[in-house]
Design goal:
Layout (H helix, E strand, L loop, with lengths): L1 H47 L2 H8 L5 H14 L5 E8 L6 E9 L5 E11 L2 E4 L18
Antiparallel strand pairs: 1-2, 2-3, 3-4
Helix pairs in contact: 1-2, 2-3
Length: 145
């Protein structure tokens, strides 16, 4: 009788562990899909030359610095009629951060490849496409003394 009980407990533990790990992989799939949606929004913003949408996808405050950088990004990459041919999302820095690789084709037929970091903040995925951002003011400065 004790043997059956031990086998039952071992089987139950195995099943519970299999069920809980499936949930984690479902969450990873959902996260990757949400991050992919951010990449798709980026491409839509580029195609439409939409600075507001680009700032939203970048997850930065809508200020003069972001507007200036958005105009530069759109001048360099916008309005090309991009069609996505592939997106690879790797959550290689944890459940809320990773990398994205974008492959697209311009309406002229030219291939375009881009890669960037993806970050989830307050439940929304953003792409690290803005580089001209000030350092947080709540951080202490380093000293050489």
């Amino acid at each position: 009788m004790d043997r059956r009980y031990l086998v039952s407990v071992a089987l139950a533990a195995t099943l519970l562990s299999a069920c809980s790990s499936g949930g984690d992989s479902d969450n990873a799939v959902d996260s990757k899909e949400e991050a992919r949606n951010a990449v798709e929004s980026y491409v839509k913003a580029l195609n439409a030359r939409d600075a507001d949408q680009l700032i939203e996808v970048g997850g930065v405050p809508d200020d003069s610095r972001a507007r200036r950088e958005a105009r530069k990004i759109l001048a360099d990459k916008g309005g090309r009629g991009l069609s996505i041919t592939g997106v690879q999302i790797d959550l290689d820095m944890g459940p809320d951060a990773g990398s994205a690789k974008l492959a697209a084709e311009e309406k002229s037929g030219k291939s375009m490849h881009d890669s960037f970091s993806v970050v989830r903040e307050d439940g929304s995925w953003h792409l690290a496409i803005f580089t001209d951002r000030p350092a947080p003011s709540d951080k202490s400065t380093s000293s050489t003394e």
